[in-house]
């Protein structure tokens, strides 16, 4: 009985040593605010230019589709944002994009074992295609390379002006 109790105590003690370590790994997989800001800005800079048409189906400097915006704004702001609002309010657009980028970059950091370049590549591919992989050739590969280049550019930060980085995109629970 004494041996069994010692084993239980030892198991409990070991599990308490292991749990904080796994929690630390999870915390390290969360994207930092600097990483999020750099990713948001890289996605903005790599976005295709607006077409000559007023209504080309994409909105804001990030070139987001209305159906995508609907889900993202509901997820991040707990309310729908119209394409017109998203297009005309750079701060609102950056808030929504930052929220989604935080989620996706954190997922990719965890999936890649905190390989930042691989995570950025995964997010850029997802942004363009909805998949984290498969952007190895053609237009999507060029886009991913462009995003990675902007992300890695020294001093990568949001452009000055009305669009400022979101310091703590906090989706309301």
Structure description:
- It is built from seven helices and no strands.
- Mean pLDDT is 79; it is low at 1-27 and 157-173.
- With 173 residues, the chain is mainly α.
- α2 crosses α5.
- The longest helix has 28 residues, at 2-29.
- Residues 1-25 form the signal peptide.
List keywords for this structure.
173 residues, mainly alpha, 7 helices, 64% helix, globular, disordered N terminus, disordered C terminus, signal
Indicate the low-confidence ranges by residue numbers: 1-27, 157-173
Strand content: under 5%
Task: Calculate the terminal CA-CA distance, rounded to whole Å.
Answer: 47 Å
Mean pLDDT: 79
Net shape = globular
List the helices and strands and how they pair.
Elements: H1 2-29, H2 33-46, H3 66-77, H4 83-88, H5 90-111, H6 116-129, H7 138-152
Helix pairs in contact: 1-5, 2-5, 2-7, 3-5, 5-6, 6-7
